[in-house]
Amino acid sequence: MSKIAVAVFNRKGGVGKTTIAVILAQIALIRRNKVLAIDLDPSRNFSDALGFLKNYFNESLRIKDTLEDDDAGASEEWIVIDCPPSLSDASKNAIDFADIVVVPVRPDFFSLSNLGVMYQTAEKFGKEKAQLPLVKVGYDNSVMTKIANQLISERDYPVAEDLPLHKHIPYNITSGRIWSTGLMARSRQPFERLYEKIIKAVDKLNEGVFDINEVWTDRKEDETNDENV
Ligand SMILES: Nc1ncnc2c1ncn2[C@@H]1O[C@H](COP(=O)(O)OP(=O)(O)OP(=O)(O)O)[C@@H](O)[C@H]1O
Ligand SMILES: [Mg+2]
């Protein structure tokens, strides 16, 4: 497996960036990888959430609050970067540095309205659009979801995964529990699938394949479950 640097970014606040960053870091740790977690948001939610888990994972987990050039040579298998809700210099550096930038979007207009400038910024760093896939968070049967889906397909944004909302997740993340506590196996699947797809995408990038859209679209049918919020 290649080394993986993933950033989680959206200029919109409260869309689930930190939650996804925590979950990806935890899945990597559970699967016995070493993880370097970089928290670029001064609110420190990512460091605080992972700080709870430091006791379980000890030296497998390193947490810091700046991204430096040297980090490209880090010994960890996974680098997970949580960005602030702004296209600050720190976020731009993260977009430049990461192999894949996961972009969570809620079914609301403001989650989606700022993405053009993000893709332009990424393009300046030589990044393909497919390296910045959206992750839908809490898309349901509402009219707003329908409008958001329409916007996503009109603008031809890549979509990596659909993540359901779960009532356990905010509790687990803020109380230092493993994110998946209380979730049934099939409810964990979309999160694990996202993790697997990121590995596959980075493998392809390392092979020199930049059209990685098929990695994201290779998805099974959405699960239904009874744990949704
Ligand atoms: N899959 C999920 N299921 C249930 N709740 C979720 C999920 N993802 C995020 N949340 C909740 O939504 C809220 C916002 O999530 P989070 O803090 O991850 O967003 P953020 O984009 O990092 O916000 P900010 O821009 O302020 O840093 C939190 O209360 C979080 O617990
Ligand atoms: Mg956050």
Structure description:
With 229 residues, this protein is an alpha/beta fold. The chain has one domain: P-loop containing nucleotide triphosphate hydrolases (Rossmann fold, 3-Layer(aba) Sandwich), CATH 3.40.50.300. 42% of the residues lie in helices and 15% in strands. It has nine helices and seven strands; from the N terminus they run βαβαββαβααβαβααα. It has helices spanning 17-30, 45-57, 89-97, 109-113, 115-124, 143-154, 168-174, 185-206, 213-217, and strands at 4-8, 35-39, 61-64, 78-82, 100-105, 134-137, 159-163. Strands 3-2-4-1-5-6-7 form a seven-stranded parallel sheet, sandwiched between helices. Helix 6 links the parallel strand 6 (134-137) and strand 7. Helix 1 (17-30) runs parallel beside helix 2 (45-57) and helix 1 packs across helix 8 (185-206). Residues 222-226 have low confidence and may be disordered.
Put the structure in a nutshell.
By secondary structure, this protein is α/β, with parallel strands linked by helices.
Helix content: 40-55%
Beta-sheet strand percentage? 5-15%
Bound compounds, each kind once, are: adenosine-5'-triphosphate, magnesium ion
Instruction: Say how many strands there are.
Output: 7
Query: How far apart, in Å, are the first and last alpha carbons?
Result: 35 Å
CATH topology: Rossmann fold
CATH architecture annotation name: 3-Layer(aba) Sandwich
The largest beta-sheet arranges its strands as 3-2-4-1-5-6-7
CATH homology superfamily: P-loop containing nucleotide triphosphate hydrolases
